[in-house]
Structure formats: C-alpha cells, structure tokens
Write a structure and sequence with these properties.
Layout (H helix, E strand, L loop, with lengths): L2 E6 L6 H10 L4 H8 L7 E10 L2 E10 L6 E2 H10 L4 H22 L7 E2 L5 H16 L4 E4 L2 E3 L3 E4 L2 E4 L3 H6 L5 E3 L9 H10 E4 L5 E10 L10 E9 L7 E10 L4 H13 L4 E8 L5 E9 L4 H12 L5 E7 L5 E7 L2 E8 L2 E4 L1 H11 L3 H17 L6 H28 L10
Parallel strand pairs: 1-6, 6-11, 7-10
Antiparallel strand pairs: 1-13, 2-3, 4-5, 8-9, 12-13, 14-16, 14-17, 15-16, 18-19, 19-20
Helix pairs in contact: 1-5, 1-7, 2-5, 3-4, 4-5, 4-7, 8-9, 10-11
Length: 431
C-alpha cells in the first residue's frame, strides 16, 4: 500500500519549513542528519526546536552554516549528490528538486540549466534543506507527495540579484500550472527552495487526498505573522481507494400530467430505441394537487439531443430539463442456457445472473409454463453451468441431479394437475 504525504501550504512553504514539518511528524532527526552528512560538504550543523506559532506547537529546524562566498553551479550540486551515495530514492528526489531550480533560473537568466549559478539556493543551508527533506520523506517511508494550493505574499523582497517582486520570478516559474493564491502579507511566504520541492515532488495539488491518517506535523517559519500561524502542515497516511471518475452521462427529464399509462410505456420503449442507457417513470404530485409522472432517461452526450427530442415528441411536454452526471456500470456479459431444449439468454455481472425477460416469456408461452417457473429453471441452469463448466461425473453428477430433481418433480406435478383437471371421458361413455 502506498504512503502519502500532503503539505498544507496555507502560509506558503520554505525548505526549512518542509523539513521541520516532517521532523515534527516523526522523522528521526539523527537519521536525517546522518544522510545529509554523506554529501561531501562541511561546515554545517542541523538543529531542531519546538516553538509556538499562534498557539500551535511546531518544529523549527535551523541549518547552522559558516558564511561563505562560494557560488555553486547546478552541475556542481548534481555532482555532490551523486558522490554522496544516498539511498536511490533520496538521490533521485534531491536531483529532481535542483534540476527544477536550474530549469527555472536558466529560463529567467537565459542560460542553459547546467550553467546556472545558484546563490541563495546553492548555499549550504539550501542544500541541507533539500537533501534533508528528501531524507525525511525516505525515513517516513513516503511514496507519494501531494500539496494544497500554495499561498504567496505581496510587495518586494531583497535577494542576491537586488530587489525582486514578491512572489519571486523563480517561484512563479517553478509553480507554473500549480494552483496558487495571494495574501496581503508583505513577506516572502513561498521561497524558491520550497517551490522547487513542490514542483519536483508533488503529484497532485488540491484538498487532502484519500488516506488513513497515521501522523501529522507542523514546520515553522522564522517570522511571526499577525493574522495566521507561519507554518506548513504535513499529513501522513496510507492511501485508500478513491472513486475514479465515472462515465459521463446526461439525465434528461420531463413532467407530465396528461399522459396515459399506455403512452408512458410507449415513451419508455421509444427512449431506449433512441439510444438511452435507461428510462423510467416516477409518480409525482404536481401543482394544484394534480397527479403526474416524471419521465427520465439516462443517455450519453452523443445521443442526448435525440433522446431529448424523443421525450418531447412522445410525451407532449413543452420542454426538457437535464443535468450532467457520472455512472459506474459493472462489466457484464451474456450467457445462454437451455430450458427444455429452448435457449434463454442470461445477463451475468458481478457473480449475479438475470434472465432476459423476453426470452423467458417466449419459452414460457412455448412450453405452457408459468413465467416464474422458466426464470427459476434458467437461473438454476446457469448456476449449475457456472459451478460445473465441464460434464459432471461421480459425486459432482449426483449433486447436480439432486439440485435438478426438485425442479423435475415440480414439472411432473404440473402435468399431473393438468391431467386431473381434464374430463376422462369427454363422450360420456364411461360407466
């Protein structure tokens, strides 16, 4: 079963916030630190503390790094991750995050991604944030990453390139096709590192996906916000089955109060002939207490116009209403069985069989049997065939005969009853 992580970015997201949320949700900091130490760079440390943001307890992680003027290229950082010999999924995720950053920065500065010079995101703290987040996901056994729509601030921010609009151009580029929204907060709520984590690892963006929740955590940002907690939340859980999108269909309906039963029955048959999947009539009470009927039809969009025209033509209604729905039909197949040597079709779906009415009615008329008797025999014949697809022998044959015998006795009794009811001497010669 797949394990999911969902980041709730109601106050944006940064690399240290994502890492803090995962540690708060249960990722062992020592394991995360040990994996980060495989990257061949020195001069850094990783600490975590519990803080409060608007009364909510959260984990704030801090990367303690020496000041440096080193500017690393995307190719340089990729080489460091390769050299680290990290677990496969940690390495792949970290490479994907920095590759997303390189593509975004390369597009903004008109340079090939591998030649992009990282400033803030190439610093030690950014490397540890990215590798640490990927390591924490692995420690927690996360298979899928999902996120909510992402919040952004407003105004201007300062960077290595000088003053930039908020959200920064790199963040906007990274979150292309991701649902975002702005807040009237003059702070950088979503950083390039946080945006890159979502862009590279996020599979879907929206509400909390279906899961059996196992843990959750909050990662804290450094700044205090006036009207909201400066946090990102992560929710972890095992994926559960979701209802997949169904087959789109149109539900078309009319209300009528002046149609006879015969007209309604004919309308249903005409709707099915016009291509409707199904059609039915529902009794309703209309205005002024008049009894009426709702005639409904379910049809594909391709034939909806034809079905709607049939509704008005056959019922005399002055209009049609409709709505778009979905349906989830089960797979089905047709089988054929014999009753007294005559074929009867059976619709089979989900281990259940339903005898086709028209076939059963035809056979009942031919044999002079009640309809329910033919239906019962056809169902028994299908069950026996499903249970014994090959000719039965030995004990199986005896069991089959035992199941069929009650039906034979019932048929014999019917014939005896018919004989007992006849006049034994129609000419009156007896006696």
């Amino acid at each position: 079963m797949s394990r999911r992580a969902w980041f709730h970015c109601f106050s944006g997201i940064a690399g240290d916030m994502a890492l803090g949320a995962l540690v708060d949700a249960g990722a062992d900091l020592d394991e995360v630190r040990a994996l980060c130490e495989r990257v061949p760079v020195s001069g850094w440390g990783l600490e975590a503390e519990t803080v409060l943001r608007n009364g909510i307890a959260a984990t704030h992680v801090t990367v303690l790094a020496e000041a440096t003027t080193v500017v690393r290229t995307a190719a340089h950082i990729s080489g460091l991750i390769e050299e680290a010999r990290l677990p496969t999924r940690v390495a792949e995720r970290a490479q994907a995050v920095f590759a997303a950053l390189a593509r975004a920065e390369g597009k903004l500065h008109n340079r090939p991604p591998e030649q992009v010079h990282f400033h803030e995101v190439g610093a030690l703290d950014a490397i540890v944030d990215v590798v640490g987040t990927c390591a924490a996901l692995e420690v927690l056994g996360v298979d899928e990453v999902h996120a909510s729509p992402v919040a952004h601030g407003i105004g201007m921010i300062r960077s290595a390139h000088g003053a930039l609009p908020n959200p920064p151009p790199a963040v906007v580029e990274l979150l292309r096709d991701v649902p975002v929204y702005g807040l009237d907060v003059p702070l950088e709520l979503t950083t390039p590192t946080g945006a890159a984590l979502l862009a590279a690892l996020g599979e879907t963006f929206g509400p909390l996906p279906a899961m059996a929740i196992a843990a959750s955590g909050f990662g804290a940002g450094t700044a205090e916000l006036d009207d909201r907690p400066n946090l990102v939340q992560v929710v972890l859980g095992e994926a559960v089955d979701e209802l997949v999108p169904g087959q789109p269909v149109q539900l078309l309906e009319v209300n009528v109060d002046d149609a006879t039963g015969e007209t309604l029955a004919h309308a249903l048959a005409a709707l099915l002939d016009a291509g409707a999947h199904d059609a039915w009539v529902t009794p309703v009470l209309m205005k002024k207490g008049r009894p009426g009927h709702t005639v409904s039809a379910l049809a594909d969009a391709a034939v909806a116009a034809r079905v709607a025209a049939t509704l008005t033509d056959e019922t005399g209604s002055m209009g049609v209403r409709g709505q778009s729905l979905e349906r989830w039909p089960q797979a089905r197949e047709f089988a054929e069985v014999e009753v007294e040597g005559l074929p009867v079709r059976v619709k089979v779906t989900g281990g259940r069989a339903k005898v086709e009415h028209d076939d059963a009615a035809r056979v009942a008329a031919r044999l002079g049997l009640p309809l329910r008797e033919v239906v019962s025999r056809a169902e028994v014949a299908w069950r026996l065939r499903a249970r014994h697809p090959e000719p039965a022998t030995g004990a199986d044959a005896a069991a089959t005969l035992a199941e069929v015998e009650p039906l034979r006795r019932g048929s014999d009794r019917d014939e005896e009853d018919e004989g007992a009811g006849a006049d034994p001497d129609p000419d009156g010669a007896a006696g």
